[in-house]
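Dear colleague,

Thank you for sharing your sequence with our group. We've completed the structure prediction you requested, and as agreed, I am returning the results in plain text so they can be pasted directly into your records. Please verify that the sequence below matches your submission; if there's any discrepancy, let me know and we will rerun it promptly.
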Amino acid sequence: MLWTIAVVKSCGHWEMKKYRLVIVGVLCLFIISCAGGATNQQTKTGQGALVGAGVGAILGQVIGGNTKGTLVGAGIGAALGGVAGNQIGAYTDRQESALRKVMVKSENTIVTRTENVLTATFQSNMFFDTNSDVLKAGAYSEMDRVSGVLREYPKTRIRVEGHTDSKGSDIYNKELSQRRAQSVANALIQRRVDPSRMEVVGYGESQPISSNDAMNRRVNIVIIPIQA
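Please find the predicted structure tokens below.
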């Protein structure tokens, strides 16, 4: 904020004041986005605008070589960054709604969201027999549902994660979790989900979420927005 005031003093023109208003608006958006009551779209708009303003200010200074160039670049960057953040948030909102709608019939699946990252968690006992990486018959209906949403919203990256409990050796559990994650990824590919979007990772027993072994044996499909 001190930087903004100093710049305005050095310019002393109405045009510079207009760009100052843009930057102040960006800072207000960011403050709102940090508040607990902000919606997801407000959060991403504010954060995107702030990042855009920073990048735009740097480019403006490089290109214009003066304070005016810095402020012009900041204003343009804030506008573009805010739009991009808003669009990503709205896209994730729609995808989350679609995913929750198709998974509502699944008692053993949990859909969670952190920022704009969605995670569908499937308990391994509904997907695999003990020590097996072969999908059970009941898993295919789950793959049918989630693959439809993944195809409908292609502007995302997908990370398929395998997790086990702590029984057995670290090496065995890591290998088993990798094979299980790959089995799920293969099922998605068979349902026309683009494999170039996917990353397959086996974490073994390294990321427990509970003292309950059944909860730790799971497969996550993590959906991450592509930010141009």
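Summary note from our side: Residues 1-11 have pLDDT under 50 and may be disordered.

Kind regards,
the structure core
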